[in-house]
Design goal:
- This protein has 122 residues and is of the alpha+beta class.
- It has one domain: Yope Regulator, Chain: A (2-Layer Sandwich), CATH 3.30.1460.
- It contains three helices and five strands.
Length: 122
Amino acid sequence: MKETPPIDTEQLFNEARKSEDKESYRLLEKSRTYRIGVGAELLRSDQPSFFFEVVIQLCREYTEVDLSLLEGNLELLKGLKARGYSLSCQDGNFLSCRKKVTQDNMQTEYDSIKLLVRKAES
């Protein structure tokens, strides 16, 4: 697995402060069936709350159901749930998995997510 550059939490924080909805988001990784993003949001205080989001596409559109893809996605969902992610349905055939993280454990969490995704894809 290749080394990833550190996540710039200061930039996420600054973008959230300047945005109208007080949130910023960065796409870190994307494939045909999933994407991983990280974000910051400002709540009542001026302190940021950081989160990871994994969005999973359950089926490729207009194709036959791919049972191996669904099995891999199920394993990924179980792994994310075990790590404390909330799972919710989105429009179409997507699931959003989201977890708040601290600034200190962002890289560790990102590395763990990538391992879960790689396992699900194999």
